[in-house]
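Q: Hi! New to this. If I give you a protein sequence and the SMILES for NDP, can you show me the bound structure?
A: Yes, paste them in.
Q: Okay, here:
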Amino acid sequence: MDTNKFDFGMVGLGVMGRNFLLNVADHGFSALGLDLDAEKAKALDEEGAGRTVKGTTSTEEFVAGLKTPRRIMLLVPAGKVVDSVINSLLPHLDQGDMIIDGGNSHFPDTERRNKELQEKGFYFVGAGVSGGAEGARRGPSIMPGGNPKAYEHIRPVLEAVAAKVNGEPCVAHMGRGAAGHYVKMVHNGIEYGLMQLIAEAYDLLKKLGGLTNEELHRTFARWNEGRLQSFLIEITAAIFAQKDDLTDGDLVDGILDKAKQKGTGKWTSQNAMDLGIPIPTIDAAVTMRGLSALKDERSRAAAHYPSDRKIKSVEKGTIVSEVEQALYFAFIITYAQGLSLLDDASKEHDYGCDMEAIARIWRGGCIIRAALLEDIRKVYRAQPDLTNMLLSNEFKDELAATEEATRSVLKKAIDAGIPTLTLSSTLNYFDAYRSERLPLNLVQAQRDFFGSHTYERLDREGIFHTEWGS
Ligand SMILES: NC(=O)C1=CN([C@@H]2O[C@H](COP(=O)(O)OP(=O)(O)OC[C@H]3O[C@@H](n4cnc5c(N)ncnc54)[C@H](OP(=O)(O)O)[C@@H]3O)[C@@H](O)[C@H]2O)C=CC1
Ligand SMILES: O=C(CO)[C@H](O)[C@H](O)COP(=O)(O)O
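A: Thanks. Here is the predicted structure of the protein with NDP bound:
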């Protein structure tokens, strides 16, 4: 009865939705798209020519055109739009239909929508999608969570369209409730951390080593052939080679140094704070976006505190080698921080996340894909209950081997007055994490001194309070 109807529906035919839907159609599923903008619906018809793809601006036509139980994905801006789209669809849907929110929704919203839709007899899947336009078109990494029965129903489509690494699709059920959007949020937090580390590496290479854009291009391209191999290193190499259409210079030099943010990095830091899980690399990266946005104030501060600090140049080979080691050291620790947050959140929210599956599906399609994730996957396959991958033997030797270069480059950065908030936070996290004794005994004493907050002792059990100074 449904034979002339479409297999899969998409609401939102912008950058992600249009490309994702064309990808669905490439894999033999008929695909119907809805957007309020007639131009976008028409563009889908044109781009989808030769495949079973159609765009519409009518919600009624869209819903009526889909096979039941319906599989409807939303790729619309996160926030109120998602609720508004769901509310516009609901009166037309049948029990058992499924809505998949593929945008970057905040996980508490997903939790709420999950409950509300389940109570009304519909399935809801909060699914993180990563890979940008190209990923959506050719194979993203997909992080669906929620009811496992719902996942089984969309699994064939998602496995077909997802990126593949060694034949394995970069999609898996992430866990119960809002697990999919939680995992995507942390993915983006790691993304912020890695991007800022790369930006600091660029600053160090340029200011300490005097590398030109051409040399930066070649350096990053070479790094991408080695252990730093990753999407972000690859695109960074390409960025340094990009000429500016509007001037004779290189495009990177003409771009305003104010980084925007949509909120996923900040949410990661906020939730990590709520759970008490330290992720200082990601926190520092979010802070640096904030600092970058204060461009006018920074200009005033630069005039207020002029620096006559001489930058002692470093031989190019030395700085390139040290920065490569520091980046590798920091990449490992950034993934470790993000995954330790996920491990804790999974327990706290009862998501039931499989850490190996997360590392596996991040190996391809997404923005943080990297060769390193294969090693991380192996760690969690061998020790699924590890709270922090730094406790495994896998990275012990590599961290030991790259630690000295990280210290060396940071000393030079401090001497030269080059900001390295993210890289130095990463090293400090490592130093603190492996310190059996931290000076926080003094903080406990201070808390007890001014607020009778009590303390525990090293030498005996119990809770103590002292009348300090008496
Ligand atoms: N761009 C990226 O690289 C990535 C984005 N994401 C996430 O995916 C989601 C979509 O992002 P993206 O594709 O970039 O955003 P776009 O703004 O490019 O596309 C969103 C589309 O949704 C349409 N839309 C808005 N409201 C409605 C509605 N009520 N009914 C139907 N269509 C509607 C918009 O139309 P109109 O413009 O006319 O309002 C637009 O075509 C976001 O949550 C984003 O954070 C996730 C990973 C990567
Ligand atoms: O989800 C993504 C990739 O995985 C998006 O590209 C992300 O929204 C970019 O975030 P921001 O605008 O905050 O830098």
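A: The chain has 19 helices and nine strands. Let me know if you'd like me to explain how to read the tokens.
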